[in-house]
Amino acid sequence: MQASRARLFKEYKEVQREKTADPDIQLVCDDSNIFKWTALIKGPSETPYEGGVFQLAFSVPEHYPLQPPQVRFLTKIFHPNVHFKTGEICLDILKTAWSPAWTLQSVCRAIIALMAHPEPDSPLNCDSGNLLRSGDVRGYQSMARMYTRLAAMPKKG
Amino acid sequence: MVSDSVAAVPIPSAANTKNPGKKKRTNRSAKLKQYKIDARREQWLNKGAVKNKGCKDGMDDDVHVPPSSGKHAKQELEKLETRRRGEEDDVLIHQESDSESPSNSPVSANSSVLCGNDSGTNFTGSSSSGGSTSSSSSSGGCCSGNITEEEEDEDEEVEEEDDGCLDDWEAVADALAADEKHQNSSHNEPAVETDSSQSREVTGGSGLGHPNSKPGSGGMVPRGSANARAWRADDAFRPQTLPNLSKQHSMPNPDRFFGGGGPWCRTSVPSNCPICCEDLDLTDTSFLPCNCGFRLCLFCHKRILEQDARCPGCRKQYECEPIETEASVHGGSLTLRLARSVSMIERNQYTFVSINVKAGQ
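Above: the input entities. Below: the structure tokens describing the complete assembly.
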């Protein structure tokens, strides 16, 4: 408990210090609970998610650096490895391939990478996975772009 | 059958009627948080837009953007060019990096390097509108590094941002600059060459690039001579970026922002454990559990061994790993350190062997 707290404090400081370092990631700690974080990530360019801002919810376990944080999308996203309803993310580094040397910031980076390179062979969103697996890249892209527009773009006016 | 279904119906409905009341309360706080996050996103996006414009006015608008990104770019630059500007910058940066970020997990070190690069390119992108030469800062290579006037100005802005001991450093720098001129005129080259032969080895080993091999120092006439010589170990002008054998133990991590990443970054001794952030004591610092060079405290190591027993740095299993000395190509200082840790591991193996022998007898 103490170790995870110390570690999270350090990450918090790091985030405060390097706020402008990574323009695609905004990590925000909950005001009252250091085990709850929110991240805003920009959709990577040249993907259907470009221009969208996606919100992630982090729930950090008690044994944090040894156990991975739980992350899910709060913004709706059409992606083979993200559950369409719950926002759950299928990413190996959040499960078996987690390393204690990773940080919340690096998890965000990994998720951005996942957005750019979907893995249709282990889908959480079967519709999206099937589109890609059947080779309908255009179908996948237009669906993903539509949901990016609907859910992840700031509403004007 | 019918009565069953009828009886079953009211329960969920009751639950449903109860839930909204509770939900409302939680919803309110959730909404508040969401509102905050939305505001932040708005702010962030605006900032990004301003940044993308790349005009100087925009950068002046929010004061916090240029200094920190500039700082990264500057740190890159400071590493790239061996030394050209006043020493106060070097010292200042290292004080900062020492005090604020004494630890380095490989990922964070790499990430910060990455960030440095990112912001570096951003920074040059925005500053090139004023335009002379900014190509040097975006390159990750070792020895380029002309600093433009403009960037120097930025640096001065950064300095103004940093409060505290700055005035003193400026004064010291003035004194040093005066002293330097004196030295340059009085020293004759051969003496310096012989003096600096030792430190030069270290310089080469660190991969910083030899001052003499620097291609583009033409623009800087007044300090050209200062650039062309190496530093003695006790030289006051010796940049802090050069690894100093005697200092390696006291300075937590002089090469945190050093470009390139790779094993070299990892093998430097962090001052606290990247996993639990506790300070590393003497036993911990001489403890090298994995040949990828990822260090951690014994406590965390034990906890990891109890779980999946994989090195956090490279995700390989901790045991049965051959110790290679490949990394020795990276420089004299590293081989020294490796040799020490290897010897410790060997010692452990010896003890194991002796125990086994005893058991066999």
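Note for the figure: Residues 126 and 133 of chain B are 12 Å apart (CA to CA).
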